[in-house]
Amino acid sequence: MEEVAAPHLFRRVFHLVSPVFLAYYWVPDPLPGGVAREALLMLFVATAMAIEVVRIALRIPIFGMRGYESERISAYAWGTMGLLLGFLLFPMILVIPVFCGMAWIDPLCAWSRKAKMYPWLPAIGYAAVFAGLLFAQRALAIAEVVAFTAIAVPLAILSEYPDFRWIDDDFLMTIVPLVILTAALGPILTLL
Question: What pTM value is reported for the model?
């Protein structure tokens, strides 16, 4: 059995648990003292981005990062920016399944390439996650869940496929499906 390096394992575990950030939707608004929920979000993201700027400027290695990320924006920061835009610009009904799809299926994409099961295994996994989470929200009819899923799956898998060094697939797998689904299915979303 192949030994898994600790940084690689950390990245995978971080991916799998990152949907915990979706708890933002259940933060009371306003917070005690009248602080807007969005202010808490902006404070968190601004702190993360400030750390990212200092990390790049001082070339500070962070556990779990890939070597090529030392001089560029990290996957962690890209994922944070994608989720921030999701929270601010897109409906929760889409953000939850899209972000969970990115978090849980992106690691599966990497593994399935090695196992020669790409792209069909990640596509099936993404479809199951996406449709399951849409269905669990009980806001759409089954036909609508099927339509959203049929559009989202190829968008997410195609967004993950290119190996761009200047933009991370964690961002693309979140934003591309959100933008296109919102544009394509806008009339349905306005009814929710």
Answer: 0.91
